[in-house]
Amino acid sequence: MQKDVWTTLKVLNWTKEYLAARGIENARLEAEWLLCASTGLDRIGLYLNFEKPLNETELAAYREMVARRGRREPLQHILGNQEFYGLEFEVSPEVLIPRHDTETLVEAALARMPEARSVLDIGTGSGCIAIALAKQLPQAAVTAIDISEKALGVARRNADLNGVAIEFLQGSLLDPVVGRCFDLIVSNPPYIPTADIEALDPEVRDYDPRGALDGGAEGLDIYRLLVPAALTCLNPAGWLLVEVGIGQAVAVGQLFRECN
Questions:
Q1: Does the pTM of the predicted model rise above 0.85?
Q2: For the chain, what are the domain ranges?
Q3: What sign does the CA torsion over 87, 175, 221, 226 have?
Q4: What is the topology classification, in CATH, of domain 94-259?
Q5: Is 5 exposed, middle or buried (0-12, 13-18, 19+ CB in 10 A)?
Q6: In sequence order, what E strands does 182-233 have?
């Protein structure tokens, strides 16, 4: 009996339906990225080879990737990387996947402190914020802290990947830099209220580190510790900038005013 021939187009069409049935919104685009990873082609290459059959090695690799995505494992974990601020970053279950929304924090920091000579990133995770700032502020000495040594391992590899020198320190909040001051302090802390975590998309709830998500009952626990400590570690005219969740700006702003 003749075996089915799985051409590029047939594989993509089947995968689109398979992923869409499992609640994945951009099913066709994700199917293309997975097929690129398993064949070594770029997306243009896929379109130029629509009628080309996949070989057994390509099909086996692709099936495994599609099965993982069907279980709602993040695409970034399967591919092993994520783009952020025009740079490529290694990602893994040890770190929060960089979000494009967080690029706003980088842009705000650059707009306010383009001449910063010293920068501190608290809770660096993958290192995406610290590394993006280091690329844009070559005059600055950048320090990044995380409580997780595994996360710092990912961040160090990302710094090497992007050709920047960063001082990485393990510890809680500002403990590793007691007595030091900085022109610019940035942080994207955990800010999701504990009760809201179960309602998150499976890619976030089941695969991102819980410690990078859970901000306590109101989502404000880390801000209450971070803001007063960080404000005492700023140089004159320095800036503390933090990412906040939806609906939290007023409460975090009030915390800044109380501590200033």
A1: yes
A2: 8-71, 94-259
A3: negative
A4: Rossmann fold (3.40.50)
A5: exposed
A6: 182-187
